[in-house]
C-alpha cells in the first residue's frame, strides 16, 4: 500500500517497507533476473544457490532445527554467522508478507524479523522458480509440536494458549487482522513459568486502522477451532497428556482473550471521591505487562461520575525497566523474575537507600553473570540465559526446602545442570522425526514428486481426488 492510503495509521508503519506488494489477483510478469530486496545487507545472501528449488539445497547449508507444519517448503539456512528461515512461495504472497512483517516490526509487535524477499529465480534450464521469503530465525524458539516432544509440565497446553491469547490481543490492538490463527503459525519462547508467542506466518493478515468486533471475533473463533484440531492431532500421536481436554483448552483461549481485551480497553466509571481507583487500574495493567501512555477522562452525562479509559501503548513494562537498569533484553515474565531477585539482593545487602542503578550493576556482576557463565557449552543454543537463571532460582528453592536450609547458587546450578537441564535437549532423531512430519503438510513442492520410490500415482488421473480439492 502507498502511505497516503493509511492516513490514520500509526506513522511508524508508513515508512516500514521498501517493497510494494502486487495485487495477488493481478497478472504481472516475473522479474527476468534475480532480485534480492533486503531490510539489511548481508553479502553472503548472494552466494546461496537461488537457482535450485529450496527442497534440493545442499545439506551443508542447512541447519537441523525443528520446523513447524507448513503448506510450503521451509528450510533453516546458514548465512554467514546468522541462521535464516527460508520459505518458498509465490512472488505476490512473498512480497505482501514481507511488507506486513516490516510494518509489524515497526510497531514493535512480537513477530519474526523479515530479512529479504528474493524474486526472479530461475533454474539452470531457465524455468522460473517461486520466490523466497527470508526471515531471521528466532533464537531459542520452538514450534508447539517440538515443545510437546519433550517431558513438559502437564499444564503446557494451557500456558501456550495463554501466550497465544496475549499475542492476539496485542495484534488486534494494533489493527492487525490475522485471518489464520493457529498454534502452527506461532513460535514460542519460554518466559519464566509461562511462554511468549511470536507471529511467524502473516500470509493471510491485513493491517488496518482499527478492527471491527466481527473481525476480532472471527479470529478468535477460528483460533478456537484450529487449536482444538491441533491438540486432538497431538493426542492421537500420544504427545498430549491424557488428562487434557482439547475442547476445554480451546474454550480457555476464548475466555482468556476476552478477559484480557476487556482489561485493556474497557471504560471505568468513578465518582469524584474514588479517583484513587485510577491508580489501581493503571497498576493492574502494569502487572499484566502493559504500559499506559495516557488516560482519557471525561465527565458522564449525569455530571456525578468520571469516565476513564486508558490508552495502552505496548506490552513490556517490566522488560523496559530491566533493560534500563541492566541492559538485559528479555521476555516480560523473565524480566519480572529478575527484578524480584534484584530487589531481594538489594534488601539482603542493606542497600535500600542506594540508587537502584548502582545496585543493579553490582547484582549483574556478583549474581547474574557468574550464574549464567555456568551454562554448559552444549546447551548455550538451547536455553536463554535469563530463563536459565529463573529456573536455577526455582531449583534452588526446591533444594533448600528439601534440605531444610539455604543452598548456595553454585550448588543449585550444579544440581540443575545435572538433573534438569538435559530435558531441554532434542536429539537429531527427534528433530528429524518432527521435520518429516512438518514436510508431510507441504502441498506445493513439486520436486518431491520425483521420488525414486514413487508408485506412479497421479492425482490428476483419479476422479475421486477432486473431492479433496474443495
TrEMBL record:
* Comp. bias intervals (Acidic residues): 442-464
- What domain of life does the UniProt record list for this protein's source? Bacteria
User: Which portions of the sequence form the region Disordered?
Assistant: 1-31, 437-470
Annotated DUF4032 domain ranges read 259-421
Q: Which InterPro entries does this entry report, sorted A to Z?
A: DUF4032, Kinase-like_dom_sf
Under what name is this protein listed? DUF4032 domain-containing protein
